[in-house]
Amino acid sequence: MKILYAFQKTGNGHIARAQEIIPILQKIGTVDLLTSGNQSQLDIPFKINYNFNGISLVYNKKGKVSYLKTLLQNNYWKFFKNVFQLHVNSYDLIINDFEPVSAWASKLKGGNCISLSHQASLLFENTPKPKKTDLLSHLILKLYAPCKIKYGFHFKSYHPNLFPPVIREKIKRLKPQSSEGNFVVYLPAFSDEKIIKTLSRIPVNWHIFSRYTSTEFYVNNCSLYPINEDDFLFKLNHCEGVLCHAGFELPAETLYLNKKLLVIPIKKQLEQEYNAVALKKLGVLTLEKLDTNLIDLWTRSQILIDLEVAKDLEDILKDLIEKHSISITSMGNYQLA
Q: CB within 8 A of 108, min separation 6: which ones?
């Protein structure tokens, strides 16, 4: 069988999940890979068959989504050209991780596409949600990568079609150690200057990974590093806690490693607002902004939270393919139950 796995590169979480999913799909059939976006710092150790610009959300340095910059900095003509040129009907199944080109091509041309993403989980009724949501943000969430059939990953299984987080093997192989007084920071929606100004007043060691620097440097108790996966995993393994945005993969990995977690959702980013509500229900401290006093209190807290994780990703994928693929006649050595 022929599978198209489509995922985006706006952020590192999609690629982290793809690193686990792709080898399993390659056991099942012939797999083509499609990516879009350009805001990830992780390597993709696989051959990419289609690499599109897609549509990316753009942030300002205050940590908010800028609708104006998003409108002006995306090439919508090229996006629709890619949509109409993609031959989605040549695939038995398209698995879509919140990737807009393949989703819209399938919607317009009848491709056999299912959604398997964290973002899809936010559209289920039982998923924790803010009391008030921005209507435009909710519309973007629904229309960005539309698929009729939805499955998702979330911090808990709020619905039969929702699965606990997938933890990548690189994280599972770590042997967590807690280096007291050392904290990892990943807040790419904020400027380095704003982060340093806030955190340098708190008497712990801050290891800040920044997309704005290409060299390592130090300001008082703040160490800044360019984004490098090996360096990040080492610091993550040896830290006491993590301060980050309210994404999905990094908070899940932090909790899996039994580290303290503090999240600041990106404003006007609906996924992050939803995640913040879910994490708060789990007991994770969430803030609306960089607040020196509250962050200082968090560094001295002892809040640790257990996290349920997906037990067998291969079984999940096997079941979805059995239910939704057009053809399962060309399976190689892989046998469906």
A: 83, 84
pLDDT for the residue 335:
38
Task: Tell me how far apart the alpha carbons of residues 180 and 183 are, in angstroms, rounded to a whole number.
Answer: 8
- The model scores a pTM over 0.85: yes
Tell me if 101 sits within 8 A of 55, measured CB to CB.
no
CA–CA dist 122, 176 (Å, integer): 30
pLDDT for res 334: 38
How far is residue 321 CA from its own chain's centroid? 22
Distance CA 239, CA 68 (A): 37
| Cα(133)–Cα(337) distance, integer angstroms | 43
Residue 9 phi/psi, 5° resolution?
-115, 20
Q: What angle do CA 295, 66, 227 make, to 5 degrees?
A: 55
The two structure tokens encoding residue 132: 């008030």
Compute mean pLDDT per 10 residues along the chain, 337 residues long, and list them: 92 84 94 85 82 80 68 88 95 96 96 96 93 80 93 94 92 88 94 96 97 93 94 96 96 95 90 95 95 96 86 91 73 38
Predicted pLDDT of residue 38: 72
Query: What is d(CA 261, CA 232) in angstroms, rounded to the nearest whole number?
Result: 16
282 touches 246 (CB < 8 A): no
CA pair distance 314, 203, nearest whole angstrom: 44
How many C-beta atoms surround the C-beta of residue 212 within 10 A? Answer: 14
Q: Which two tokens stand for residue 305?
A: 């939270």
| H or E segment to which residue 161 belongs | none
- State the Cα–Cα distance between residues 88 and 3, nearest whole angstrom: 10
CA atoms within 13 A on the CB side of 336: 18
Q: How far is CA 124 from CA 47, 107, 132, 308, 311, in A?
A: 33, 20, 16, 19, 22
